[in-house]
Specification:
By secondary structure, this protein is an alpha+beta fold. The protein has one domain: 2,3-Dihydroxybiphenyl 1,2-Dioxygenase, domain 1. About 15% of the residues lie in helices and about 40% in strands. A hairpin with a 2-residue loop joins strand 6 and strand 7.
């Protein structure tokens, strides 16, 4: 099964946790000082919020897979569609160890495809500034970059 992933930057984590807990009728599955995540079953979504962004709003979207085969399928699909792809391989981010790659939509929104391998006790095992976004390729102004958007006709 694949699960839709949404990551938002929020200005007030506690206020946002209260709002989304009521909206989803569930408490976060994981909560840290700068991060919270709900793993909802209906609809199946990995919904995360953090205070690590530059401005409130969508950080990135994505698809989380249950296994390596589903992740390979998403990667093959992106490559067949001639999307520019940034393959991170095994990495750490958002309190988890994952295998992942990124693509960027025509508007510049980063899409993460990932398979979670396990939890870690820190946001990221690499040195990272506290204000940095959730591991998505970023320009200094906070806009996803690093994955050239290939022009196409809809």
């Amino acid at each position: 099964m694949k699960r839709f992933h949404v990551h938002l930057h929020v200005a007030d984590l506690d206020k946002s946790i209260g709002f989304y807990s009521k909206l989803f009728a569930a408490e976060p599955a994981r909560r840290e000082a700068d991060y919270a995540k709900w793993m909802l079953q209906d609809p199946p979504v990995n919904f995360a919020i953090s205070t690590r962004g530059h401005a409130a709003g969508i950080d990135h979207l994505g698809i989380q897979t249950d296994n390596a085969e589903e992740l390979a399928e998403l990667k093959a699909r992106a490559e067949a569609a001639d999307f520019a792809l940034q393959d991170e391989g095994e990495t750490t981010c958002c309190y988890a160890r994952s295998e992942k790659h990124w693509i960027t939509d025509p508007q510049g929104i980063a899409w993460e495809h990932f398979h979670t391998l396990g939890n870690i006790p820190v946001f990221n095992e690499q040195a990272q500034p506290a204000a940095a976004a959730c591991c998505a390729p970023r320009a200094p102004a906070g806009k996803p970059v690093g994955i050239p958007v290939k022009s196409s006709c809809c």
